[in-house]
């Protein structure tokens, strides 16, 4: 149960076989077999000649470099795979990259029921992340075989920052807060409180109280800034650079980028699973963009609607599906009756509403993002 502690994690990683480097001749043979059906006889003959020349000249030197890289790493491919398969992808994250999972519909009788589910889920998420930090998660296994749990460290506080040519990942493992988005407003809500070595998850009735305050916030000054995260990565990175010229925006983006997860509430609901699935990926497009309650760069987004639908979406770059699904199962497994207890101000952590300063250039990017998302 202490598997995630560094010593045991190192033992487990070192016990795994290293990813082998395929023999050069075998690689080139597989290459020729792969391209053969795609080429004319003349093109294939030329490709064979070029491949044979590569095997005699440049190939052996490059193979030696690859073997040197493999000797100094547990996995010679993983960094390249992260960059090429994920971070260099320039298309939009929603629909094209971000997977979505749906949960069985709940039967809410009121908004209070919706907030009960959310409060339990967030409390369970806090408990789960603290177990990651303390190294007390149960061992993942297939039968009696233990599985490497190295990726679990990427679950709390990993964020994808857009770049012009390639994105980057920001890790904030000591973060304590989540991002709450509701009708175009953004809030920082701490769900872990206490000192570093004695943190605990905020109690469910306190979480529910803070969520209720958010849902009661007046609808003023709402800007659909989240729609920018649905742009292609190059355009979003340029818009983000413009936003960073404002100290107000710098602070808001910094808070968002350190969030453990994001949670969003769509009060207007969806008629069926298919509609909820689409709405989870794209955002609620029925409101003519009076607000846009998504932020696709956060590793995990949780969406709950007043009519009982809920879903999770995740940026796939930092974590495979298994750790993310385990997180969801654990958080949803915390189901208690949220107590109706008296609350004093000193019990509550500070709830912060994030602000934005939108320049004309950023406003034009928001308009562009609306049209592209509708397409």
Description:
- Helix content is 42%, strand content 14%.
- It contains twelve helices and 13 strands.
- It has a seven-stranded mixed sheet with strand order 1-12-11-10-6-7-13, with helices on both faces. A two-stranded antiparallel ribbon has the order 2-3.
- α6 packs across α11.
- The radius of gyration is 24 Å and the shape is globular.
Beginning-to-end CA distance, first to last residue = 49 Å
**Overall form:** globular
Strand content: 5-15%
Radius of gyration: 24 Å
Which structural class fits the helix and strand makeup? alpha+beta
Strand order of the largest sheet: 1-12-11-10-6-7-13
**How many DSSP-defined strands?**
13
Query: Largest sheet at a glance?
Result: 7 strands, mixed
Number of helices: 12
Residue windows where pLDDT falls under 50 for at least 5 positions: 1-11
Mean pLDDT: 89
Order of helices and strands: HHHHHEHEEEEEEEEHHHEHEEHEH
Helix proportion range: 40-55%
What are the main properties of this structure?
single chain; 375 residues; alpha+beta; 7-stranded mixed β-sheet; two-stranded antiparallel sheet; 13 strands; globular; disordered N terminus
């Amino acid at each position: 149960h202490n598997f995630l502690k560094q010593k045991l994690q190192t033992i487990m990683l070192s016990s795994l076989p290293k990813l082998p480097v395929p023999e050069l001749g075998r690689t080139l043979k597989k290459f020729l077999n792969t391209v053969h059906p795609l080429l004319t006889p003349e093109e294939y003959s030329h490709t064979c000649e070029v491949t044979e020349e590569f095997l005699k000249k440049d190939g052996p030197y490059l193979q030696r470099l690859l073997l040197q890289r493999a000797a100094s790493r547990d996995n010679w491919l993983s960094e390249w795979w992260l960059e090429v398969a994920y971070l260099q992808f320039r298309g939009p994250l929603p629909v094209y990259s971000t997977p979505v999972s749906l949960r069985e519909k709940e039967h809410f009788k009121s908004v209070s029921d919706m907030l009960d589910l959310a409060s339990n889920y967030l409390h369970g998420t806090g408990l789960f992340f603290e177990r990651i930090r303390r190294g007390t998660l149960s061992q993942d296994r297939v039968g009696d075989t233990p599985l490497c749990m190295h990726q679990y460290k990427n679950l709390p506080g990993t964020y994808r920052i857009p770049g012009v040519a390639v994105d980057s990942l920001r890790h904030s493992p000591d973060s304590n807060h989540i991002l709450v988005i509701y009708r175009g407003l953004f809030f920082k809500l701490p769900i872990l409180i206490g000192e570093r070595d004695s943190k605990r998850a905020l109690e469910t009735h306190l979480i529910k109280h803070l969520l209720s305050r958010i849902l009661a916030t007046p609808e003023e000054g709402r800007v659909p800034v989240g729609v920018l995260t649905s742009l292609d990565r190059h355009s979003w990175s340029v818009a983000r650079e413009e936003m960073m010229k404002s100290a107000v925006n710098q602070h808001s983006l910094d808070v968002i980028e350190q969030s453990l997860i994001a949670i969003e509430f769509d009060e207007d609901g969806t008629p069926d699973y298919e509609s909820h699935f689409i709405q989870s990926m794209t955002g609620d497009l029925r409101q003519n963009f009076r607000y846009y309650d998504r932020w696709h760069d956060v590793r995990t987004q949780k969406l709950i609607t007043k009519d009982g639908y809920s879903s999770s979406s995740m940026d796939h770059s930092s974590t495979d599906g298994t750790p993310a699904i385990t997180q969801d199962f654990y958080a949803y497994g915390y189901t208690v009756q949220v107590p109706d207890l008296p609350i004093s101000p000193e019990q509550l952590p500070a709830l912060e509403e994030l602000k934005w300063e939108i320049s004309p250039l950023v406003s034009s990017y928001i308009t562009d993002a609306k049209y592209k998302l509708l397409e």
